[in-house]
Amino acid sequence: MTFQPELLESCRRDTPGASQRIHFNNAGAALMPRQVLEAMQQHLSLEMQMGGYEAAAFARRDIAGFYGAVARLLNTEPRNIAFAGSATDAYNKALSAIPFEPGDFILTTNDDYVSNQIAFIQAERRFGTRVIRAAALPEGGVDPDSVEQLVRKHKPKLVAVTHMPTNSGLVQPIEAIGQICRQHNCLYLVDACQSAGQAPLDVQRIHCDFLSATFRKFLRGPRGAGFLYVSSRVLDQGLAPLFLDLHSADWIASDAYQLHPDAYRFELWERSYALVLGSKAAAEYALQIGLDNIQARVRLLAATLRERLADIPGLRILDRGSERSGIVSVHAPGRKPLPLKIALEAQRINSSISSHNAALIDFDDKGVDWALRFSPHYYNSEAEVDAVVNAMKALVS
């Protein structure tokens, strides 16, 4: 399936918000297709009519389908998928399952997500671990050779990499790093918050032990929903998050419990089943369009936008790396970002601002303290790219 004009039109018909504004903030929260909203509304209606427990029992087969839909996105099995309240919720559950000891190393990058970096520092203070960051390539992005050298030297308990950082268009070589981790038997955690729904993800090729993501971004699902992939290797080792409940484990004696055999041990019993079903609908919608197809469309729109914005005097493109994602980050020296964002909103153009404390190492290296972020998706049009370029040209000229 390719993005013929009729497919674009179909996607836009499924996206009521696309007729209201130019939404180039998909890296923040994408516009949901109507199928996602309808799935949630239908279940909430059931809860209103039947009661919450009864509605969940009535919809149990559809709810179970969530795990299969996400598994198809990742080329894995339903037993390896856990629902989470967000990407960070999923990520922190994975971190809490790792038996860190004083002196253990966590190997990461300069471009990992800010919440992850904070969690690594917290682990240092609580467990006595040490954080090390691999060197970057001259063109941007982590150097796999540096990763391998540090793995050989320090034998880290965990290697953690953000696939597509939130503050720029960088794409990290997660498959190459996965090969290194598998060769040296390191636990490997991938933050796919921005790449899930934007690009194909195959956990068999990535060789990761954990992969976390959200639904609200490029998967076009609801807020308050995410997922965690947990490898069979991790499950077989008996790793589990720090605190469990009656869903994630069985109480089998007054002083004993038994873990759930599947990734459900990384879930808690209570959740919004309307969000679960909306997430399932979002995953199925992405699968219907096709992740290869989505990636090609997103990168075409982003590359076109990036190239045209680069021609505007007074704008600096911040994206680095040999491979670029659907995130386009720009800086206007001598200007403040908020007035630019407000002026764009007045023209019904959505963007977002990345502040300095969201990307300390990256922004210090680039000599900037903010970035304006544009993130188109496959339902955006070439005419909308034109409109954004013209608006930015008028604002900074």
Descriptive account of the structure:
It is a single chain. With 397 residues, this protein is of the alpha/beta class. It folds into 2 domains: 131 residues, Aspartate Aminotransferase, domain 1; 253 residues, Aspartate Aminotransferase, domain 2 (3-Layer(aba) Sandwich). It contains 15 helices and 15 strands. The strands form 4 sheets. Strands 2-8-7-6-5-3-4 form a 7-stranded mixed sheet, with helices on both faces. A 4-stranded antiparallel sheet has the order 11-12-15-14. The chain has a two-stranded parallel sheet with strand order 1-13. The mean pLDDT is 97.
> Biggest sheet: strands side by side, in what order?
2-8-7-6-5-3-4
Strand content: 15-25%
Report the major sheet: 7 strands, mixed
Residue-averaged pLDDT: 97
Shape: globular
Number of strands: 15
CATH superfamily membership of the largest domain, which one? Answer: Type I PLP-dependent aspartate aminotransferase-like (Major domain)
Name of the CATH architecture of the largest domain: 3-Layer(aba) Sandwich
Ends distance: 40 Å
- Into how many domains do the coordinates divide? 2
Give me the strand/helix succession: HEHHHEHEHEHEHEHEEHEEHHEEHEEHEH
Q: Which stretches are low in confidence, meaning pLDDT under 50 for 5 or more residues running?
A: none
Briefly note the structural class of the backbone: alpha/beta
Query: What is the number of helical segments per DSSP (H or I, 4+ residues)?
Result: 15
